[in-house]
Amino acid sequence: MLKITNLNSGYGKLQVLYDLSIEAPGKGITVVVGPNGAGKTTLMSSIMGIAKVISGEILFEDVPIEGDLTHNLAKKGISYVPQMGNVFAELAVSDNLNMAGYLMTKEESKIKAEQMLEIFPVLKKFYARSAGTLSGGERRMLAIAMGLMKNPKLMLLDELSTDLAPIIAEKVMKEVARMRDELGITILMVEQMAKRALEIGDTAYLMVSGEVRYAGKADDLLHEPELCSMYLGIKAGSEDAIAEIEKPSTEGSE
């Protein structure tokens, strides 16, 4: 679905990613983990045409998309849920969903919004309330629903667990897995809640300082003690250390 080869990118004169190569197979969850400052958010920004691509290739369904405009990527079937600012806080939940369906007719948008309420029933209770009054977990659900409004083939999820209590972050992760299992959507997610993300993921990449240090099966990365200890805060055989990486990040985008 998505293939990135030898990507070099950044912002202005600042290069962040170096010869990065990543693939996201169709109808699977590809997880990108790594310490803060690794360049995970820059990866998402590069795909979406926000960061500057210096060189390399980004293929979506075998078609080059590097340098394409963000709204064109949405039309092609790529939906992006950023880490922050992913809902319109002053607007009602209903209006947020309608805004997300801007590429559809009014009738199509209405039907799709009703489907979102079936997928995320918690939003039904707050349909007329402003998004700013929702809890962190409820806002994440709304942000995902807005992404799904566009009928995406590929969803990019950036640090969904940020600022969430562990129990709420766990619910969000379950919804991500359900999107793959029940809706067949391809997902590329970057995440600080590394252990749980790797547990639901199919493929994993460990990024450090803008480079890939591990590529393989998601579950296998949890059994790489040296990498987990050095970059993810997991020490082999230590339940306390494993729990430590489940704390959601409170830091901003990279």
The end-to-end distance, rounded to whole angstroms, is 25 Å
Main structural class: alpha/beta
Describe the main β-sheet briefly. 6 strands, mixed
Tell me the series of helices and strands, N- to C-terminal: EEEHEEHEHHHEHEHEEHHH
Low-confidence segments, given as residue ranges, are 236-254
Strand elements, count: 10
Query: What spatial form do the alpha-carbon principal axes imply?
Result: globular
**What is the count of DSSP helices, taking H or I runs of 4+ residues?**
10
Percent of residues in helices comes to 25-40%
Roughly what is the average pLDDT, rounded to an integer? Answer: 85
Radius of gyration of CA atoms, rounded to a whole number: 18 Å
Read across the widest sheet, the strand sequence of neighbours is 6-7-8-3-9-10
The percent range for strand residues is: 25-35%
Quick overview:
The chain has 254 residues and is of the alpha/beta class. The protein has helices spanning 40-47, 70-76, 93-100, 106-119, 136-148, 166-183, 194-200, 218-221, 225-232, 239-244, and strands at residues 2-11, 14-24, 29-33, 52-60, 63-64, 78-81, 154-158, 186-190, 203-208, 211-217.
